[in-house]
Design a protein that fits this description.
There is one protein chain. The chain folds into two domains: about 70 residues, Pnp Oxidase, Chain A; about 150 residues, Four Helix Bundle (Hemerythrin (Met), subunit A) (Up-down Bundle), CATH 1.20.120. The protein is an alpha+beta fold and about 230 residues long. The chain has six helices and seven strands; from the N terminus they run ββββαβββααααα. The protein has a seven-stranded antiparallel beta sheet with strand order 2-1-5-6-7-4-3. α3 packs antiparallel against α4. It comes from Amycolatopsis azurea DSM 43854. This is Hemerythrin-like domain-containing protein.
């Protein structure tokens, strides 16, 4: 089975084919040795995304007992308490990502033209950290969406849109990374435009996600779309 974990050293998504077998409503995953990278990843961060017949599923990894090297992978099942917890986690993650964007924008605004080469190096460092974190956030969301749409079928259209936006964001991050790592000088205007394009798209994505998912996850009733919010008196 294909399992995505967060690299324990870099936070970068790691995709690995792991020996698994079904166990009740979840799976047992076995590591051939204690140095298996995915095994070390889950010891640090126990969240995993499993590819089951081409569909991502969020899972929580619990170490096996009795000296066995491996984990019990418990698939996410949504109930009222878990829904509220996910809503809280979503807001925390979005706040962290917004803070990272604000820090990068502050650097863009505060560095004179003469310091642009240094800024480029700084932004590249920020991009590696931020991009890895955002990719993991979206991969984990894709896995959680499978459980959310099972519990809330009415959210399927919104979830499908969010999945598509995850793909769009991923491509935009690759463009920014290529711009920062390319040879030669980069026009500050081009760098700023690319950054603002990504930042604007992310803010719209976060706002749509919060408006459409949080009410259902919190048990507050039907979600309110952004278009509906704009039509209120």
């Amino acid at each position: 089975m294909l399992i995505t974990t967060a690299d324990a050293g870099t936070g970068r998504p790691r995709l690995t084919h792991v020996d698994c077998r079904r166990s009740g409503s979840g799976y047992l995953a076995y590591a051939p040795d204690a140095d298996s990278p995915w095994y070390e990843d889950l010891l640090v961060s126990p969240q995993a995304t499993l590819d089951i017949d081409g569909v991502p599923h969020a899972a929580h990894a619990v170490p096996l007992e009795g000296g066995e090297r491996g984990f019990s992978l418990r698939l996410l099942e949504l109930d009222a308490a878990r829904g509220r917890a996910i809503a809280g986690q979503l807001l925390v993650h979005h706040a962290e990502l917004r803070e990272a964007l604000a820090a990068a924008r502050s650097e863009l605004d505060g560095v004179p033209v003469a310091g642009r080469s240094g800024l480029r190096r700084e932004l590249l460092g920020h991009c590696v950290t931020f991009c890895n974190g955002l990719r993991m956030h979206h991969l984990r969301e894709d896995g959680a969406f499978t459980a959310i749409e099972k519990a809330h079928p009415g959210l399927v259209p919104a979830l499908n849109r969010l999945r598509e936006e995850h793909e769009t964001v991923s491509r935009a991050l690759l463009d920014l990374d290529a711009l920062l790592q390319g040879e030669g000088e980069v026009e500050s205007t081009a760098l700023r435009e690319e950054f603002e394009r990504i930042a604007g798209g992310l803010e719209a994505h976060f706002a749509y996600e919060e408006a459409n998912l949080l009410p259902a996850l919190r048990g507050e009733g039907a979600a309110v779309s952004l278009s509906q919010l704009g039509n209120e008196p």
